[in-house]
Specification:
about 300 residues; Leucine-rich Repeat Variant; two-stranded parallel ribbon; two-stranded antiparallel sheet; ARM-type_fold; Armadillo repeat-containing protein 8; ARM-like
Length: about 300
């Protein structure tokens, strides 16, 4: 029960996250439960608490991975039945994967996640087939792929080819993030999905699949949303930091004739620097024009 309380306190609340991480022994106790807990429900609650703390800031995420045994335990919980982890339930595995996802969101943490032990867990999960195996497997496969895309060096992105099923799931996550819909009992945030889509679109095969799944239309929807620079993005708004990812993905997709044609006549909100001062809000411009200025 107390682990559930910690998770709720840390959700979207940086101050509470700091109190949890700065209170002596709490992170050590959570690491012990994650690594050696006897009950899956306790491990799931502990990973949720850690995950919500990690999501609040890179400073908290760095404190978390510095705790001995914490990352090892989280990665162990990302296992699945085919790895012989029959005692782990799917929700615990998904919670652990979500924890790695939140850790990898922060640039400062990524160098600490690029070790062989992390990739040894993520790559097989990224290749799981989940269409006939429930939402949990699809979530884990998509999240592992998004994490791998964040951890990959830019020069390696062109060779990061994913199966169509995984890309379809990632696109579903994007639509849920745009519409504010839960999927698999999770809330999907635009800032967490846009960067992986941007990075994955550097591969030509991925780009073709994303285009076929309507990525161009969905990314235009994001550019038509007002920007939000708050730490927690308001519903119906796009994170200001995610706009460059959105534009880069669209620039990659525009190499495909059908996507390029879809930009004709479409109007989107101009970047923050292009505000209409007379009315005090963001001005509008053509999608093609915004992309042209972005590429320049």
């Amino acid at each position: 029960l107390q682990h559930d309380v910690l998770s709720q306190l840390a959700f979207g609340d940086k101050d509470n996250g700091e109190r949890i991480c700065d209170t002596p022994l709490i992170l050590d106790l959570l690491a012990d439960i994650v690594l050696q807990g006897r009950h899956s429900a306790d491990q799931q609650a502990a990973t949720c608490a850690v995950s919500n703390c990690a999501a609040n800031s890179p400073e908290l995420a760095l404190k978390i991975i510095a705790v001995p045994g914490m990352l090892e335990g989280i990665l162990k919980l990302c296992g699945h039945e085919e790895d012989g982890e029959k005692d782990l339930n799917a929700r615990t595995c998904v919670s652990a994967m979500g924890c790695v996802d939140n850790l990898s969101y922060h640039q400062a943490v990524r160098p600490h996640l690029r070790g062989e032990e992390v990739m040894r867990v993520l790559v097989p999960l990224m290749q799981l087939r989940g269409a006939q195996r429930g939402e949990e497997i699809r979530v884990m496969s998509a999240e592992s792929a998004m994490i791998v895309s964040r951890l990959s060096m830019r020069e390696d992105l062109a060779g990061l080819r994913l199966e169509g099923e995984v890309l379809c799931t990632i696109m579903h996550c994007l639509r849920c993030a745009i519409d504010g819909e839960l999927w698999a009992s999770f809330a999907w945030r635009l800032g967490e999905v846009l960067e992986p889509i941007c990075r994955l679109s550097e591969n030509k095969h991925n780009c073709q699949v994303l285009a076929a799944e309507g990525a161009c239309k969905q990314l235009i929807r994001v550019l038509q949303m007002p920007e939000c620079s708050e730490p927690t993005t308001l519903q119906g708004h796009a994170p200001a930091a995610g706009r460059a990812h959105c534009l880069q993905a669209l620039a990659n997709l525009a190499e495909i004739p059908a996507c390029r044609a879809g930009l004709v006549g479409v109007r989107v909100l101009l970047p923050s620097g292009g505000r209409d001062r007379r009315r005090g809000h963001q001005g509008w411009g053509t999608a093609a024009g915004v992309l042209e200025r972005f590429a320049a």
